Amino acid sequence: MISIAHADWLKASATRAVIGALEAARPGGNRFVGGCVRNAVMGRAADDIDIATQLTPDEATKAAEAAGFVAVPTGVEHGTVTIVAAHTPFEVTTLRRDVETDGRRAVVAFTEDWAEDAMRRDFRLNALYAAPDGSVFDPTGGGIDDAKAGRVIFIGDADERIREDYLRILRFFRFNAWYGRGALDAAGLDACARMLAGLDGLSVERVWKETKKLLAAEDPRAALEAMEATGARGKALPELARGDRLLRLIGLETDYFLAHDAVRRLAAGVADQAAAAALAKRLKLANEERDRLIDALGAQERIVSFLSPREMRRAVYRAGLQAFEDRAMIAWAESGSAGAASQWRALLEMARTWPRPKFPLTGDEVMAAGAAAGPKVGAVLREVEAWWVDADFPDDKLAIVERLKAVVQGMA
Fold first, then answer.
1. What is this structure's pTM?
2. Which of 67, 257, 258, 407 suits a disulfide with 21, CB 3.0-4.6 Å?
3. What's the CATH superfamily of 1-149?
4. Which CATH architecture has domain 156-238?
5. Quick one: pLDDT band at residue 11, thresholds 50, 70, 90?
6. Residues of the chain with pLDDT > 70: what percent?
7. What is the residue extent of each domain of the chain?
8. CB of 217 within 8 A of CB of 177?
9. For residue 29, what is the enclosing H or E element?
C-alpha cells in the first residue's frame, strides 16, 4: 500500500478539520477520492478535494454543522453535500451504486461498499481512495499503476461504462490530454468509436464544459488526433474544421513556452466568424466567450509577423490587446512559418508592453467647439479619433483641438 500523507492539501488545517468532523460521526467511514488522490499519486497539485463517505447526506450535514461548518445540499439526490471550511469547499458524497442509467442521468442507491462505489466510476485512475492518514486504496486493482504510468483505462467493460454516461467518451479524451502518456488505450478508443451515437443525447452545456477542459490541457494534440481518428470530433464538434491550424497553434505554444487558453484554441480550430458564431450559439457559450471567439477570427486588421511598430499600435488600439493577441497567434499558426518565430514573438511582446492610450476628447469638448448636440457629436469624435490613430496617437492636446475645430467647421 502506498501513502499520500505528504500531500499539502491533506495536511492543511481545513482538510483535517472537515475529515475529523466526519470521522467523529463515522470512524473509518470516510476517504478522500478521485482527482485529489490521483494527482497526489502523480505528484501533481490538487484542484478540488472530494470525500467519499458511508454517512448519508443528512448524517454528513449534521456532522458538519456540529463542528461549526456550513453544509450546502449541492446534489442531495445523488448523495452530495458541500462542506465549506476556511473558504474551501469539500464535496462530500455518500457511497453509491447505480440502479438505473440512460446514458445521461443515473438513479443511484446509497451503499456502504467501497468496491460498489468504485465500480460506478469512469476510469481506474479516478477510482483511488485515501484514508485520513494518507493510505491509498485501489479497489479496481489498476488505478495506482495507471496513474504512475499515465494510462487512462475504463473500469471493467468500457462499453458498459460509456452506456452509463455517454459524456465519458469526451472525458476519455480529456483525461488523456491531461494525464495520458504514450498511445491511448486501444480498447477505450474502440469503445468510444462504437458508442459515438450516444453523444447526440448529451446537453450542449456538458459538451462545452468537457471541450473547454480538454483544450485547457498543456498539450492535448494526441487526444485531439485520436478524437479525429475515431470520429468523436466530427460528432461532438463538427464546427472544428481547422484541426490542422489548431494543432499548429498548440505546437507553437508548446515549442516556445507560450501561454495558452481554451477559447483561443477553439478559435484556431474554427474556419471563420460565421462558423464561430454558429458554434457559440449551439454550445451556448457565455457572452464573453462568444464575443472573444468571434473577435479572434476578425480580419479588420491584417496581422503579419513583419508589422511595423506603428502598424502594430494601430491594430492593437482598434482590436484591443486580447483580440490582437488571439489574431496574431492564429495568424502565426496559419502561416506555418517556423523561420519567422522571432518576429512573431517580438510583435506579441511589443503589443503586450505598449500602454494603449485613451482618446483624449469628450463629447462636451466637441460641443464646446461648436458642434450641435446629437448624432453629429459622435460623428465628429469618430473623425478626430481616426485622424489621431493615423497620426500615431500624438500626445498633443493643442494639435487635437485644432483638428477638432477643423472637423467641426468642415461638417457645419
1. 0.91
2. 67
3. Beta Polymerase, domain 2 (3.30.460.10)
4. Orthogonal Bundle (1.10)
5. very high
6. 98
7. 1-149, 156-238, 240-356, 363-410
8. yes
9. none
